[in-house]
Each structure stands twice: as structure tokens, then as C-alpha cells.
Amino acid sequence: MTIDTFDLYKLMERDHVLLAFKGSVTSELLTSVFQIMEAKMEDLKDTPRTRRRVFNVLVECLQNLYHHIDDFEVIGSPEELTEKKSAIFSISRTDEYYMIVTGNFIYNDNVTEISKKIDHINSMSKDELKAFYKETLNNGLISKKGGGGLGLIDIARKSGEKLTYTTRPVNEQYSFFTLTVKILKK
Amino acid sequence: MEDFKLEGSAKTPEIELKSSGDLLIKGRSIPENSIEFYKPIIDWLDAYEESANANTVLMVQLEYFNTSSSKCILDVFKKLESLSGTEISVKWYYEEDDEDMLEAGEDYEAIIDLPFEMIEVEEI
After folding, report:
1. ipTM for this prediction
2. B13-22 pLDDT, tens per residue?
3. CATH value at residue B8
4. Best residue of A52, A143, A153 to probe chain B, by most B CBs closer than 10 Å
5. What is the greatest pairwise CA distance in chain A?
6. Is A126 at the interface with chain B, CB within 8 A?
7. Model's pTM, two decimal places?
8. Chain B within 8 Å of A49 (Cβ-Cβ)?
9. Count of the separate structural domains present in chain A
């Protein structure tokens, strides 16, 4: 089956997509995406507060993708690896909000952990999230990438909305995980 | 003790560490690998302790920082907290309508035992 490009275009237009990408997420790609989005938000005359929050959430969401794609062991055929290390993301903007969606492969073994983590974050109030952030910041644990589990907490704080996610089993080894973050324009 | 200077980039802040005790982190800190970026700063502070100035002031003028940087920034504060023989203070700058940056500064202030001054500016 081939995707009809015009259909895809119309679909993205309908969903107010500003930018979408599918492929392997590199540091250079992120530098470009951040620059493009900053310029776009400036052109669109969103308030500084909205721009800052969207930019913050975007950085965390896309750097999460960048780091977690790395989690896959280097086994399998080159095609299989390219697929596993590939991700998708989109940034949409309506009159009321911005929406950032990311999708990537994760090991089935990690599905429960990530679901629990997001459910836990979603169960917290604004003040509880602040306290949880401070506690995690100061717990002395540093992941090898430096974040130490702060990313999702920060995304939830800056978004101010509940995080939405799905996990869909792909095969006996891995699943596809999507995360949707909404930021209301203010 | 030599001064340490680093130009800012699209993802990393400008850094200026002077043996006179004037320290500056300015711009945006959103690198993918923050540990690598902040290591030379921690190393410089280690060496600075031996001939530290009577007063040390760290000015933090950040527009954005990612969570990967936030632990490293905490490490810089902890390193400063541990220095002996110098009076240390922190000046935390934030843009006038940037409550998030003010709050981030207050979060650090609550964790770190150093005097913080919150300074509102029009633009960083």
C-alpha cells in the first residue's frame, strides 16, 4: 500500500500540523527543529509565555526520543535496527492550544514501567508535581544521559494538562509508544 | 589560576569563570549531553578552591534549560556550597514575565544552602 501524499497533506492540514517528522532522531536534527519552531512561534505572535512553555516541552519531548532510541541493543539486521531506532513526531497549533505528539519503539519489558510512571504523574496536583520534581532533582541519581527521570515530570508541569499515551504491541519483543502533550495558549 | 571562557551556542550557554570570583552562566542550556558540557566547570571550581577570592558571585542568566542540565546546575551549586575560604552568593536572573524561571531559581534556593538573590530583568 502506498500513502497518497495529497491525502496525507490534507490530514495534516486538518489537524493543524506545523511540522512533522519520521526517521532517525539526531542531535543535528533537533538543533534545526528547535530553530525552526522558535522562528515559527515568533512569526505567529504567540505570547512569550506560550512560546517559552511550548519550547521547553518540545525540548524535553524530542530529547526523550533522542535518548530512548539509544536504548536498543545493536542486534538484528540493519533494516530492523533502522526501524527500531526510528521515531515520529509532530507539532500542531490551533487557536486554543499547541499539541506535541511523539511515537517510538520501546521494549515490551518497559511498557509497564513507563505506563506506571505516567499514571503516577497524572495523579498529581500542581503542588505535588513541584514537590516530586524537587525530590527527584535532589535524589542524587543521575541517569547516564543526565536527566535522572526529570523529563516527564517537567513536561507535565509545563503543560499543565494530563499527559496522554498509548502503547501498541508490535511483536513479541517490542511495542510502539505514543505520547501526546497539550499546552494551552495563554 | 587561569580564567575559563566559552562562547555560547544554539544549545549551550556562554560560560565565564574568573579567578577574581566572578562566575557567569548565560544563555540557554539544552544540550543532549549535559554531563559532558558541565564537567570542565566543576573541574575549574575544584582548582579554584585552592586560591579562591574572598568573595565569589555566580550569576545565572538562563533563558532556557533542559532537565538534563538541571541536575548539572545543581551539581555546580553543590560544588560552590562545598568551597571553603570564600563567601559565595548566587544571583539568579529571570525575565519579567517568566514565572517558571523564577520558580526554578526558588527550587534551587530551597535545596542549596547559599544566599540567592532573584533579579528580574526585561530581557536576558
Report:
1. 0.93
2. 999 999 999 9
3. 3.30.750
4. A52
5. 51
6. no
7. 0.93
8. yes
9. 1
